[in-house]
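User: Could you check the structure of this?
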Amino acid sequence: MQTNPSPEQPNGHSSAPDGDTSHNADAAPRDFSTISPSAFTLLLMKGLTPIPYARQAAELLLASRPNAADPIAVAKATASNPGTSYPNASHFSASNPNAPHPSTSNPTTPNPGTSAPTTSHPTASQASAPNPNATPQPPNPFDTEHRPPLFWARLLHFENRYWNIDQLMQSLDITNILELSSGFSFRGLALSREKPVYYIDTDLPDLIATKQQFVSALTREPHPTATNGAGNPAAAANVPETNTAATTTPETNTAATATAENNTAAANVPETNAAAAGAPENTPGHYELLPLNVLDAPAFQAIAHRFPPGPLLIVNEGLLVYLDQAEKEALCQTIHSILRQRGGYWITGDIYIQKELDPSLIDREDSFHQFLQHHNVEEKKFPDFERAAEFFTRMGFIVDREAAMDVSRLSALPRLLAAISPETQKKLTQTPKMHATWRLRVAGS
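Assistant: Sure, the predicted structure tokens are below.
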């Protein structure tokens, strides 16, 4: 792996392979908001994990929009039928007093302390022949008994990516943290209630407006824990669980590594974070949400200037795979400029590699797979790890450290292993590495 800065580009600037680093000035700006549905999908998936606040936020989403169990499919329907709607800030109970509370009004929402959703039994009249005009009901997103292996493989990947970033953060004594395109990750909310950090959470304006409603609801009243609402690790064991990108390649790759490393360790339930969701105002850290398009360099710089003096840690997952070459370079130049001035690191969970998978491991009818195809995610990955390292070197960065998988934290792994045959497990162990999480620093710093 090359980690030395390129002598031709010491300041991190470079040109795209075709010699043009800018888009056509007359071209319409890209609509990145079409990526947002994947953030809702990931939230519902992560609601089955101990990831901080994921379960509570997923319950809030379903309480406000019970038909949002498959947000990507809903978004597709919305595009073809303008009469449909998609979850936004006005749907949540913090701003909508008529919205049901997740723990009392939504029949598909688990009660705190339980691992399975409560259900209402239909009366004899209700159990009559279905109405052909009725809207099809989405599957229960908290069901753990009827999931295909692909679901658990995908969840395993996203769970691993989340904990990988935490792993690379923990060894740094930096309190200024900026998260880019965070989607519905509540890492900053949880961390600000544990440590004296100054944490700014960013994403596109509409998503941030909705996320603010989540945060208001999550901090308005106490919850059992900040993890999954189960209340204790034993309950969490019964409900195992990146902005937003993965494909059929990294999800199976994560499963392969986890299977090969240690199946027994993975069966242990990770410890839960006991920070209360309804923490008082005098929590040790500062947490705020701000809208940001990461390609808007002046706005990015302005947010960086909001932090107190000291080095800055920039974090992202599920962003680079949606950016083309010129956009990746523009983002790198902005981050390089900021870190060169302030000092600090950039942790990115977006080192994805183009690889061909065994067709038997791919479900081409899967809505999330189709979503990623629509956004040309595979083409926007790096060709291989060597060229990924060369790219960041050319942009003025050094790969400081790579995260290592901790199978003891992967609560989705036992579910996956139980859902696949020994033959499939063997295929997974033979799948080459396709994803990494890297911590970068400015060359010469």
